[in-house]
């Protein structure tokens, strides 16, 4: 089994839920303006941010374009950008998941993001780990074309509830990362 640690030297990345004012899994965008969150993160010493796809979409709908968002991040010293959250990426014909993946690649291009966080089966549909591994490898292959690592979050109420399961799914995939997730803190392995 290959274990690798994703490291970004001297970097403190603010997770989207740390500063958004909403709990993970909420179906609404952040309570605070994007510009305020970026400024607050910079003031607190962060040099990177994780941007949730629903917030990215909300900013675009509000007329805040990719160029303006990228400039705001850059002007506040946000050098390391990650994206979240891809759910149901393992379902073959889920159009919402496919749309989220396409949006991820758009945002990655706009901001030079280095990774995207994805989750396991939160609905407990019953996808076996072997099938998750095959579909995760395919997702990682697509993401690699956009220079993205894929961080699989280990969450106790999903089918990726243990480090052992996550390592089985991610083993041997060059751009795969296992992400030990607790609310408000993340540690990539």
UniProtKB/TrEMBL annotation:
Xylose isomerase-like TIM barrel domain segment(s): 38-174
Family annotation (Pfam families): AP_endonuc_2 (PF01261)
GO molecular function, one term: isomerase activity
Protein name: Xylose isomerase-like TIM barrel
Superkingdom to which the source organism belongs: Bacteria
Keywords: Isomerase
